[in-house]
């Protein structure tokens, strides 16, 4: 299946020339330092609030970026139609460089003040564009390369732009493709949720294309009146009569149409735009408290979404432009734990890095430090960590001078830390220091039916798009399962079922084996051994490369380390 490219036929050379001419006409000097307009933190928050819905749609498309990004040193940015960056996430090493260039939240990257750049030029030209190193008008920006795709509303209005940026030498073609896919995913969500939409019409060159984000998508009213369309469909609209098509097509049946295929699906009840629903205190409290510097403690079984929650909190927090440093305390080698956390001076101990090491805590300066599996931290390191949290300063190994650090801390564990305190394996004072606010993530088996349905629907849509749905009776079947692997396991089941159902109606025969009653101790031990065996095989296959093995097994590195430790 080849991807349809959505350019207006303009050669990049012409586009670049136009953009450089505009930059010149704005009176910009290539050798001068660019000086972007920057919103104050309060104005930035207001602007993010105003675009809350777009940002929440972007969040739904985020797994696409996160999966693709692993191992790549780049950042994803979302700017509004004015060029103001409202969200910045991704690799922290490149994040430092980006911040030095003011490629950070609150900064406005329009061409008037920043010259030719992917965000500003995509907005001026209303089309996707890559601006690579030397193609930037301002010299200071030539160390980076950026690819940007505009996002349009269902009536073709420019809403913003998604940009993926990296060091100039580290840019690749698939960055533009990923930015485009995310933009299309957001646009399709906006079309599907049009108020009063009763019919959704998909058009593509062939049947497989119907399930892809780049297929044409049109929302129609009950009577066939056009409500909105994505950018591909808008190209075709002049040649289309949607209400005639509505007459001609039968719901749910693939129908040849022109040189391609059409699929009509009915929405039984008109879709409502996903308005920000009033969140319960337990949804909003962690973010509010985090923004006030209160340490959060997340407790929950494996797969309940602790890591997912931390990433969301970081994206939504006032520290979103700062780094998120995630440390799996259980995966750190015992003899290096302190050097890794607190850093060390050059040659501080045998085997230490010659040039010294910053350590994870200092790397989290201005951002968030996520201490996952905190229950695994040895008692001696707990004492040092407590001192750092109390004094907000680190003394790297081999140094005497404390270095001030400003960070928020989120700790997580699947173990019951209060029980560990009672047993004497976890310091009580550290427990109280970390436990500014405890959020327990519920195991999936304890979800109420509406919450389970809503999560299942969200996962299905994220994994397979709008058309994926469960045949009647399947929701009950899924709801009745004990889900020992929690959301991770449900996600895997839905992923497999959706692929087998070609992204359409999922029926019983598409489901892989579902978790039955809780496992006996023997079954549990056998399963653990088999899992460990499989992980070791894949690790050997990948020559010990943990990231590669985790990707192949479709689990996080954190989970892989935990599995290797037999947890
Ligand atoms: N609220 C959610 N919405 C959608 N997907 C979710 C949600 N929570 C978790 N997931 C998905 O479930 C999987 C497991 O989540 P996550 O890694 O955050 O769990 P965890 O509690 O940190 O697990 P572990 O303790 O094993 O590391 C991930 O694929 C994640 O994307």
Automatic annotation (TrEMBL):
Domain (Sigma-54 factor interaction) spans 294-499
GO terms for molecular function, please? Answer: ATP binding; sequence-specific DNA binding
Highest taxon, organism lineage = Bacteria
Descriptive protein name: Transcriptional regulator
Could you list this entry's UniProt keywords, alphabetically sorted. Answer: ATP-binding, DNA-binding, Nucleotide-binding, Transcription, Transcription regulation
The record, for CDD domains, names: AAA (cd00009)
The answer to whether UniProt assigns keyword ATP-binding to this entry is yes
Does the keyword Transcription belong to this entry? yes
Pfam families, sorted:
AAA_lid_14, GAF, HTH_8, Sigma54_activat
**Listed PANTHER family:** TRANSCRIPTIONAL REGULATORY PROTEIN
User: Which biological process terms from the Gene Ontology are attached to this UniProt entry?
Assistant: regulation of DNA-templated transcription
Where does the record place a coiled coil?
Answer: none
Organism equals Oceanimonas baumannii
């Amino acid at each position: 299946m080849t991807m349809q490219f959505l350019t207006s036929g303009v050669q990049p050379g012409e586009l670049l020339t136009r953009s450089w001419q505009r930059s010149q006409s704005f009176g910009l000097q290539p050798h001068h330092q660019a000086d972007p307009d920057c919103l104050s933190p309060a104005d930035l928050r207001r602007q993010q609030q105003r675009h809350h819905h777009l940002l929440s749609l972007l969040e739904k498309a985020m797994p696409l970026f996160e999966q693709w990004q692993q191992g790549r040193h780049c950042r994803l940015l979302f700017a509004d139609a004015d060029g103001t960056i409202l969200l910045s996430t991704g690799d922290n090493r490149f994040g430092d460089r980006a911040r030095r260039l003011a490629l950070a939240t609150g900064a406005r990257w329009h061409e008037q003040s920043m010259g030719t750049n992917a965000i500003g030029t995509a907005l001026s030209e209303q089309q996707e564009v890559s601006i690579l190193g030397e193609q930037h008008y301002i010299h200071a920006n030539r160390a980076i390369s950026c690819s940007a795709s505009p996002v349009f509303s269902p009536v073709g209005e420019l809403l913003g732009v998604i940009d993926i940026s990296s060091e100039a030498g580290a840019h690749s073609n698939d960055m533009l493709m990923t930015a485009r896919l995310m933009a299309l995913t957001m646009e399709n969500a906006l079309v599907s949720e049009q108020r009063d939409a009763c019919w959704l019409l998909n058009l593509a060159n062939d049947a497989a294309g119907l399930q892809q984000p780049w297929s044409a998508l049109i929302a129609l009213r009950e009577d066939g009146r056009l409500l909105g369309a994505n950018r591909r469909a808008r190209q075709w609209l002049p040649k289309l009569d949607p209400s005639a098509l509505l007459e001609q097509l039968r719901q749910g049946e693939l129908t040849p149409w022109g040189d391609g295929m059409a699929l009509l699906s009915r929405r039984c009840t008109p879709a409502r735009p996903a308005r920000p629903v009033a969140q319960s205190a337990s949804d909003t409290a962690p973010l509010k408290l985090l923004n006030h510097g209160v340490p959060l403690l997340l407790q929950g079984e494996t797969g309940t979404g602790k890591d997912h929650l931390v990433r969301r909190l970081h994206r939504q927090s006032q520290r979103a432009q700062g780094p998120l440093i995630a440390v799996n305390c259980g995966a750190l080698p015992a003899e290096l734990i302190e050097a890794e956390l607190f850093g060390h001076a050059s040659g501080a101990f045998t085997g230490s890095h010659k040039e010294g090491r910053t350590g994870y805590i200092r790397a989290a300066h201005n951002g968030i430090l996520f201490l996952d599996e905190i229950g695994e931290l040895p008692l001696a390191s707990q004492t040092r960590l407590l001192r750092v949290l109390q004094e907000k300063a680190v003394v790297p190994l081999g140094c005497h001078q404390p270095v001030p650090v400003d960070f928020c801390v989120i700790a997580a564990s699947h173990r019951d830390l209060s029980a560990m305190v009672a047993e004497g394996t976890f310091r009580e004072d550290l427990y109280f220091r970390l436990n500014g606010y405890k959020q327990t993530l519920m195991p999936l088996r304890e979800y109420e039916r509406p919450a389970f349905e809503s999560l299942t629907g969200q996962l299905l849509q994220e994994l397979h798009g709008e058309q994926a749905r469960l045949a009647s009776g399947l929701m009950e079947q899924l709801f009745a399962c004990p889900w020992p692997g929690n959301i991770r396991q449900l996600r895997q089941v839905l992923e497999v079922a959706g692929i087998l159902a070609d992204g359409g109606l999922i029926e019983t025969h598409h489901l892989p084996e579902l978790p039955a009653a809780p496992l006996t101790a023997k079954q549990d031990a056998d399963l653990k051994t088999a899992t460990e065996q499989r992980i070791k095989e894949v690790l050997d296959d990948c020559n010990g490369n943990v990231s590669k093995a985790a990707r192949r097994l479709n689990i996080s590195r954190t989970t892989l380390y935990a599995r290797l430790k037999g947890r």
